[in-house]
Amino acid sequence: MTNLPSIKQLQYLLAVHQHQHFGRAASACFIGQSTLSSAIQTLEEILGCQLIERENRSLMFTAIGEDVVQRARKIIDDTLSVKELTKSHLSPLSGKLTLGVIPTIASFIAAPLYQLSQQQFTDLELVLNEDTSDSLLDKLEHGHIDMALLALPYDTDKFHTQVLAQDHFCLVHHKDYLPAKNIEDFNLLPKASVFLLEREHCMTGHALSACNLNRSSCINPFEAASLHTLLSMVEHQFGVTFLPQMAINAGILATKNMLATPSQNDAYRDIGILWRKTTGRIRDFRLFSQMLESFLKQQCRLTTDE
Asked: Which domains, ranges and CATH numbers included, belong to the chain?
């Protein structure tokens, strides 16, 4: 039979590629550096080509080495999916499930979601990982998390994506700061009166798009780094902002003299769940998504008591 690379050798290769250092890669794999180096050398002998150029304490992957890394990553993903498939079949929704969530969702659902998961899936250990959309997609691609919960639209073509709920935006202002009622074109709000988060936060982009704001003169140049800072500006009657219904329902305005008015143009962001197309845990993820969909629709329900 043809002498083929082992899964372990490919895992070691990926570790070196990730850490760009033999010592750190060996530590991450819980083996000695000499063992790792020997495995990579054996892999190169099996393949008949050099994958890594070594010089003193530096290294560089060759062009063919980069191609092998990409193939190796897919092989490892496919191998893991086989293991996940059998585990999911024998014991659905058991063990650990790591769910990545962006901050403007995690802030409002983390605790109740933990509680609900413990109640409905007693054998499941749910682990939440809060991070930005870009970072979560990178973690998902490289297998560091199992699923990701994001606000859409976003570039998610690499993954299976399913919309679970619509989270409508509300116009939020101090009770004594009265913008025009029933306004349909938010660009007509007073000059520099609309406060938003920094552009790095996807909620800002979604609010601009959903509310048809074109960064006209109504947008204040100040960009808040957190919701706390954002609401502080609004509470002191400097202007208005837009918050998703999920935040309103979670009580973010409970102790503040502010009002939330549903937008007149049905502005909303989609909340979607993502997972790798190669996963073997599709059965698990679909079951979990069904629970999550019902939960999110409750969290995003429109209220009429403002």
From this structure: 7-89 (1.10.10.10), 95-305 (3.40.190.290)
